[in-house]
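This part of the workshop introduces the protein records we will be handling. A record pairs a protein's sequence with a compact description of its fold. Backbone structure tokens are a discrete shorthand for how the chain folds in space. The question running through the whole workshop is how a given chain folds. The record below serves as our worked example for the rest of this section.
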Amino acid sequence: MVYTIAIAPYSVKKIENCLCQYQEYPKYKLFSIDKESYIVNATIENSDEGQIPVGRLIYNLQIGRYCSIAKDLYIIVGRGKNYHNVTMSAAKVFESLHKGYNDHGEHGSVIIQNDVWIGNKVTIMGGVIIHNGAVVAANSHVVKDVPPYAIVGGNPAKVIGYRFEKNIIQQLQKIQWWYWNEEKIKKYAEDFGEVEKFCKQFYLEADEQINKIKDLGCSDDKDRYLMLVDDDDNYSILSYVIDEFLACFKKDKNKELLLIVLNKEPQTDDMVMENIKKIQHIMEENNAFECTLSVEKVSFEEVKNYIPFIKHLIINRKTETVQLMCWAEVYGDNVEIISGVDTPIFGGY
């Protein structure tokens, strides 16, 4: 399917979700966009020639805060082919060769974090994360992640410079001004000019708060994966993540999947907790499983307390995803980001 979108400047005051319909899949989230971001116009092309696993959407587009996206952005997700076959043709005669995502895998996520500037006529492919503060030059073709505060350009897009020195970038990553409340941003708006002065003013306080959380981290050897339970998604990936985790790691006693249920809607949350506990009980009674499945129910703010204990973050279509990724970068230690909408999820392809 091909969708055309435009989001006017100054129109997004809080995170918004755009729901669409794809074939027999109504009300799936085409994208989310957070406050003060805009898109002059963009085209989103997704799906593998109409072939998707039943009930599952290999797709996740999220845009953080204060992003400026110019004309003619083009995002392509889920249009891959199995190029290991003799032919990649979609001709009817070869229909039996093509089994959708099951035979070649797909990267489904495109994440644009915060304060990103994307120029005219940029193309972004599935599997890309454009990190905070990055600049993507006009006419670029982005096929790999863009580092924080990098300036990239070309086809394929390559790093041609950075906006600031490394130590300044590290400080800005910790300050994360885009998550300040509106009153604080208004109060200090005139200080957003000179970057070194800005960092000198706000870095120490941010670093102190981060260290308080990081000091909670333990020295256990658990290879821990964390995911927010997406019970509010019409096409939740929870069952796929659990199934694939158990299939990949059932004999690895060092592996743990930590599922976080956000304390939002008590009745729904309680049902999710109960279902997960049933799976835990089955695992405990079955000697075939040596990995661990854990579940916690907390507020989103409390999630940051778990990040020093994890090595992997599984992302999904939750609206908290971009902020959670930013937390992982500062509260964690080289936390790996895994797209839970990909196929396969673990191990790549």
